[in-house]
Amino acid sequence: MADTTERWSEIEHLPEWDEEFYHIYTAKKFGKWVMMKTLRPELAENPRYQTMIEQEFDVRYSLAHPNIIMINDFEDVPGVGRCIVTDDVYGDSLAKLIKEKKVEERHLQQLRHQLVDALDYIESKHIVHQPLSPNNIIFTENIGNLKLIDVGYEQRPSLSHQSVADDIYNYGTVLNAALDACSGEYPELRRVARKCTDPDKRKRYHNLQQVHLGLENRRASQIYIVIIAFLLVMIALLVWLSVKPL
What we know:
By secondary structure, the chain is an alpha+beta fold. The chain contains eight helices and ten strands. Helix 4 packs antiparallel against helix 5. The longest helix is centred in the C-terminal third of the chain and has 27 residues.
């Protein structure tokens, strides 16, 4: 069996990816690219933070969603420390794309569908997570998949109303920032973002299902028009058949 020095290679610290309590690394494990997060050196021997990273691993290991970074292992890495090992999601953060004014329509469509689906999934698992922001939304380097990182550290019997409300408000803030950095005009998305962040909390969406409906409003309206038109045709046909002489 290979020892740990053969297991790991090309380990590199990614300072721009670091989180509040963690350092982030990229590396190859048995020749396959992965990413790792480990406690900052000044926190590594603190029992409180050791418990925190262990709890985060336990909570996130069971998650399985195409737009959420997948957890693979929790192990000691030579020269780095005890790490949560994840799939490789190296790429551009939404924060970087916003800063460089490189947000494109494809990114908006992913925020419109995939990001809301990922948030809905996390909420269905009753997971408390860091506030949604452009920094924890990644578009992978080669394929451009949307991946949500830093997605949870505690699982509860249920989520508070405030947690759900915060997700909706933060989603609106993220969507607004992305729209500001995109050259096109997207009035429907802007309308949803405004409703998510309305100063009057009573006017905001109350759950992610309402956000879904808001985002799909145009297509839903088209479906309703088609259904109504079909019903009118059927009614006209029935009327014609009823008055047609035998």
